[in-house]
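User: Sequence recovery, please. Input:
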């Protein structure tokens, strides 16, 4: 059985979906990959609810009822065929970028986030890729909400690809949010196992939010000393992780730097990434206590997914 990395891509043929595919060329992914392109149509929906009068009238004639069923069936078949066509459009585009990858396509009917997550779970995917925005078969924009749902609920890591203006400096700049948690360590290891071009720069950022966190004690019935002590312990763990990560990433040839900044992690990380013109941001999905997105790390992950100018990757360790 192949140990190749497994990738599920949510694809709807939109400009943003194509940007997510283009972005994969800057994601450091290996030559050996198994990719599944999933196109979801939500157009095969039942007709609007009938009024009582319409229901009685149509129920009186079985021929009319049968005709309605045939119309719904035909619409479902057409929608599914269109989804398959869109998926294989994505397959062709992806193969043109990565001829050595094993790529298949799948069209499905249903709710986009649930369908993509189900495909990833069934396929035991390592990574889900989605655009920052998209378009449904009914013309509604939906991939923005899909990407948020995926980042929040998916069973594996999620990358949200975005188009970026490329200047004369084409070096990749990878930013990693480090909070000292096991999830942050996983994000660092993920970057370390990817295959990056020469001169790729990595910037490790830890946010000292002690002053902001102690302000919570003015609102909630939590002793200020307890909040402060907890934040200081987390900051110390982050400092140790910064030292370790900087050393490890330099050993494998990445131009790495590390910094500690003060402020609100949700804002500072985004501001630093934009100022540094990062190509992508990697963050863990969970915080120190292992809780999901309700934690600090989770809040940062959501902020990065929805607010950054560049591509982002929310890293999860699969169970």
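Assistant: Recovered sequence (319 residues):
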């Amino acid at each position: 059985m192949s140990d190749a990395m497994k990738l599920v891509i949510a694809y709807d043929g939109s400009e943003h979906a194509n940007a997510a595919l283009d972005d994969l060329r800057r994601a450091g992914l290996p030559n050996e990959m198994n990719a599944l392109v999933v196109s979801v149509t939500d157009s095969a929906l039942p007709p609007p609810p009938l009024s009582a009068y319409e229901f009685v009238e149509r129920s009186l004639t079985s021929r009319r009822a049968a005709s309605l069923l045939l119309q719904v069936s035909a619409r479902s078949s057409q929608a599914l065929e269109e989804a398959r066509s869109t998926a294989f459009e994505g397959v062709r585009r992806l193969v043109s970028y990565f001829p050595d990858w094993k790529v298949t396509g799948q069209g499905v009917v249903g709710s986009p986030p649930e369908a993509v997550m189900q495909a990833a779970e069934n396929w035991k995917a390592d990574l889900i890729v989605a655009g920052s925005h998209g378009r449904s078969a009914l013309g509604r924009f939906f991939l923005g909400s899909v990407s948020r749902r995926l980042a929040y609920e998916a069973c594996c890591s999620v990358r949200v690809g975005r188009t970026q203006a490329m200047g004369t400096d084409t070096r990749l700049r990878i930013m990693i949010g480090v909070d000292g948690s096991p999830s942050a360590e996983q994000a660092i290891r993920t970057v370390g196992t990817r295959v990056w071009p020469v001169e790729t720069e990595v910037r490790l950022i830890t946010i000292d939010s002690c002053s902001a966190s102690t302000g919570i004690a003015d609102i909630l019935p939590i002793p200020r000393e307890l909040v402060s002590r907890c934040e200081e312990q987390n900051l110390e763990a982050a400092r140790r992780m910064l030292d370790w990560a900087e050393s490890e990433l330099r050993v494998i040839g990445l131009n790495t730097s590390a910094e500690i900044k003060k402020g609100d992690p949700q804002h500072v990380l985004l501001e630093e990434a934009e100022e540094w013109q990062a190509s992508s941001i990697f963050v863990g999905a969970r915080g120190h206590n292992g809780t999901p997105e309700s934690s600090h790390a989770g809040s940062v992950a959501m902020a990065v997914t929805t607010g950054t100018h560049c591509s982002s990757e929310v890293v999860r360790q699969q169970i």
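The longest strand covers residues 33-41.
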